[in-house]
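Q: Structure for this?
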Amino acid sequence: MNLTLKIWRQIDANDKGKMVDYKVTEISEHMSFLEMMDVLNEQLVNTGEEPVAFDHDCREGICGMCSMYINGEAHGPDRGVTTCQLHMRMFKDGDTITIEPFRAKAFPVIKDLVVDRSAFDRIQHAGGYISVNTSGNTQDANATLISKHAADEAMDAATCIGCGACVASCKNASAMLFVGAKVSQYALLPQGQVEAADRVKNMVAQMDLEGFGNCTNTGACEIECPKGISLENIARMNRELLKANV
Amino acid sequence: MSGFFKSSIGRKYAMALSAFFLMFFLLQHFAINILSVFSPDAFNEASHFMGTFWAVQYVLQPVLIFGVMYHFIMGFILEIKNRNARVAKYAKNNGAANSSWMSRNMIYSGLAILAFLVLHFIDFWLPEISTKYIQGDMSGLLADSEGFRYYEELTHKFVNPLRVGAYVIAFVFLSLHLTHGFSSAFQSSGVSSMRKEKLQIFGKVYAIAIPLGFIAIALFHHFNH
Amino acid sequence: MSVLDSKVPKGSLKDKWTDYKNHIDLVNPANKRNIDVIVVGTGLAGGSAAATLAELGYNVKTFCYQDSPRRAHSIAAQGGINAAKNYQGDGDSTYRLFYDTVKGGDYRSREANVYRLAEVSANIIDQCVAQGVPFARDYGGLLDNRSFGGVLVSRTFYAKGQTGQQLLLGAYSAMNRQIARGKITPFNRHEMLDVVKVDGKARGIIARDLVTGKIERHSAHAVVIASGGYGNVYFLSTNAMGSNVTASWKIHKKGAFFANPCYTQIHPTCIPRSGDYQSKLTLMSESLRNDGRIWVPKNMDDVMAIREGKKKPTDLTEEQRDYYLERRYPAFGNLVPRDVASRAAKERCDAGYGVNATGEAVYLDFASAIQRYGIEQAKIHNITNASADKIYELGAAIVKAKYGNLFQMYEKIVDQDPYKTPMMIYPAVHYTMGGVWVDYNLMTTIPGCYAIGEANFSDHGANRLGASALMQGLADGYFVLPYTIGDYLSHDIRTGKIPTNTPEFDAAEKEVTERIEFFLNNKGEHSVDYYHKKLGKIMWDKCGMSRNAAGLKEAIEEISALRKDFWLNVNVPGTATEYNEQLAKAGRVADFLELGELFAKDALVREESAGGHFREEHQTEEGEAKRMKEFQFVSAWEYKGEPKDAVLHKEELVYENIEVKERSYK
C-alpha cells in the first residue's frame, strides 16, 4: 500500500505546531499501525529529518502508552483496540490518514504526538487505593467471600489501561469514564467500602481541578475505549458521589 | 453537601433534576393541550384551573421558571467550560463514529428551544400575566362573548402558518433534545444499566410521541379553524 | 573461598528466613525519616518495594522511563501468579512449590532463596486481595485457581488474562498512597544512566529527564535496581519496546557481577512473526495450554498443502495429526515446562513441519476443549440430545469466558478466528532468568546497591516456571527487600543527606554527558534500529533456542565487530535538550551490544544443557537436555572493560534439601 500521512508536528509544549504531509510506500496490510510509523521514522532518520515522536511501549494493547487520534478517532477506526493493535488492513491503498495527538487541556502536548497524561496519575494519588499496609499481615485471602459477580464486575472496571482515549474522544474532554472505572473497581469490592466516601469525593475533586470537561453522556468514550469500559461505571460513580454526600 | 453541587458530577445531577421537572411539566402541558382536540370545554376547565389555582400559580409556576432558567443557564455554563477543556481542536474529528448527532448538539437543539420559548412567552404567557395580574381579570372569561377565553386564544394563535411552522420546527428540535436528554438524565442520576434498557425504550417513545403530539395539535387547530 | 559470599543464613531450610528476620538490625522509625532510597523501575518488584519502603518511613524516589509507573511491562503478564495456598486441597505446600521451582529451574537456582520465595508466596495473595486486586473467584465466592506448565497442582491465581496488569495496578495503588503522603517522589519519563559510588558504596544515580533532556543528580543511601530483564537484546521479544538492560549494565560496569546471562526463556506460545517489519512479538498466555492441544501434521504432504492454502487444518483427521507433546511427554503432555515445549516446537519446525509460510509455526487447537466443555455444559443445563452446534456453542462460551481477551487479541493481530480454526504459535524470547548477581539479601556486589525482580538472577535457575515471575517480583518487593535493606541501612543512621556536589557525582555526570554528545555529533550513516536488528539476528540465530560452540564463537566475533561499527557509524538525529527517543534508544542499544557478547561468552563457557540453555553438544539420545554435575554453579561475571575480558566467578550451588535428579516430564 502507498499512503499519505497528515501528521501533527510540534517541537515542544511552547511551539504552535502544524500538520505536515508525508508519503510512505510499500506498506504491508499485516503491519500494525505503529510498525507503519516505524517505517516512516526510519525513512526520516535516513534522510536526516526529525522522526515523529509518539508514545508506545508494550505494543500489545495493555500498557496504555500509545495514544494517537487517527482519522478523527482515538486509536483509529477499529473497535476494542489500542493504536498498537490497529492493523493496516483497516486501510486501503492510496488512503490519506490524519494523525493527531490526544487533545485536551488537561493533556498538554510534549512533542508531536506525545502528550502529558500525568493528570490521570494525580487523580489516582487523590484516592486510587485502599489504605492497607503492605506488611503481608492481613487476613487470609479467602476470609472474606466475594461473589463471583462482584469480582467479575470489579475486574471489568479494573481492566482500564489509562490510555486516555475516553478523554480524547469526548467532545468535552471529560475524564469520567476513567475516574468512574477506578471508583467502581473499589466500590464493587468489600475491601473498598471503608474509604468509599472519601475516595470518590477526593478523586472527583482532583478530576475537576485538572481541567477535564463535564460528562454529557454522549457515550463516545465507551465506544472508543479499547477495553470496552462500560458507561455503567460513570453512573456508579455518580451514585457513589451522591451517597458520599448525603 | 454544599460542595456537591459545585462538583462536575453535582452539576450533572442538577441538570438531570431540572430536566426531570421539565419533562414532567411537558407531559402535563401536553395532557391539557390534547384536551383541546377532543373537548374545548374540558380544555377550558383545565386551563382555568391551572391559571387560577394558587398552588400552581404561586408554587409550581415559580419553580418551573426557576427550572427553565437553571437548565438553560447551567447548560450554557457547562457548554463554555466543556469547550475550554479542549483548547486546540482536532484537524479531523469523526464524532459520528462514536456518538449520535443529538448528543453532540444539545446546545443547538437547546438554543432552538430557547428561541421558541421566547416566542411562546410573548404569545401566551405575557398576555396571560397581563390579563390576570395587571388588568386584574381573574375570571378567565371572554371579554366580548359567552364562555372561557382559553380555547379561543389557542385556536387564534394557530391561524398564522408562519407561527405554526415555527412551532413545528421547535418541536422537532425538542424531540432531538429529548432523544438524548431523556436517557442522559437517567444516566446522570446514576440509574443502573439494568433499569436503563427499559427506560431507554420508554425515553425514545416519549421523545418522539410528545413533540409529535404537540405538532399534531397545532396542525389540527391550524387546519380546522 | 570464592569472592562471592551468598550470605545464606545457617540453620535448617525451613527456619532460615524466620531466624534471619529475627536477628537482623532494624532502623528505628525516627531514623528512617533521614534515609533516602532510590528505586529504578516501577514494575511489580520496584513498585511494591517503593511502596513498602515508603510505608516503613524511608524517603523514596522512583524512576521509570514510562509516563506513569503503572505502565511498566509487568502489566503485560497474562496468566497468573503462583502461591502455595493449597486452597484446592490437591497436595500443594511450601515445600512442593519450592521443589517444583528448583526442578523447573533445572537445579540451577539457590535453594535458600527459592524456599523463601515459596514461603512468602501465600502472603502475596493475602496482600493483593486486601489491596483490592480482583482475582477470579468461583461461584461460592472463594478464590479460583488454574494450573500451569511444569507442575501437578493448581496453585495459580489469576485475574482473567490480565493478572500482571491487576497486580501492577495493586502495587501502583500502594505507591499512590505513599505519593499522596509525600513519602514517594516519582520521577516518570526519567532514565537512569549511571550509578554513583562514594567510598565504594552506591550513593546515588545520574538520570536523564526524557522530556527536557536535563541530566539530574539524585543521591540516596541505597539504590535498588528493579528495571526488569534484557530480552530485547534479541530485538524481537515479548518485552516492551523500551525494556532495556541499561540500569543493570551500568551497575555491572561499576562493580556488580552479572550472573548467568545465557539463561533466557523462550516462551512457547507466542504469535508467529509475519514479516521483516515486525517490531515485537506478542505472547499468548501459557494458560492456553490448559485447554489447547499442540500439533503439527503427521505427513509432509499435508504440511505442504496447508502452506499452499490447498488444505485447512480443520480438514485433517485425528490420525493425520501429530500431537507431539502428548506423544513425547505422556505424563505432562501439553503442560510440560516452557523450555521443553519451545524446543519441541523448534524440533518439529526444523524437521520441516511448520505450518505457516515462514515454516515457523505450530497449531494450538481448542476444538477438543470446546467439545469437552460443551458436553459438560449440556449436562449441567439438562439439555438432552444436544445438537453438535449446540454443544459447540456451549463449549465456545466457556472457552470465551476463560480466554476471551486472548482470543480477541489473536484475531486482531492474525485476522483469523481461533474459535473456528486452530491458533498458530511459535516460541519467542520472553524472560531472562539471568541478571545481576545478588546475595541472600538481594544486594549486588556493590554495597548498598540491590537488584530485585527479573533484574536479578536468583530464583529461577536456568528456566522459570509459568506464573512465577509475578510471584518473585512481588515477593522481593513487598516482603524480602524491605527487611534485608534495613539491615544495611541501620549502619547509615548517622550519615545524613548525601551531597550531590561531590567529585564522584561530577565524574559520573561528565561520563554520561560525554556519551550523549558523542551520539549526537557522530552523524554516522545507520540508524540505531539498524544495529539493534542486526544484533537481534545474531542473537536469535546463534544464541537462541539451541546453541553450539562454533555458533557461539562466531556470535562473539560478530557482535564485537558490530559494536565497533556502531560506535563509528551510528546516526542519532535531534538534540540533547528535547524529547529524543532515538537518543534514548542509542544508549540502550550500546549497552545491549556489550551484554550480547557477554551472553554468548557465558553460553560458550557453560558446556552443558540446562533449562533454557540448550547446547547441541550436550543432549541425550532422545534429544533431551543433558545437565553436567561439574556445572552446578552460578556464573557471575566481573566487568573488566571489553566483554571478552570479563572474569568468571563461580558460586557453587549446594542442594541439601532436594535430590538433584534428571529433570523428566515424560
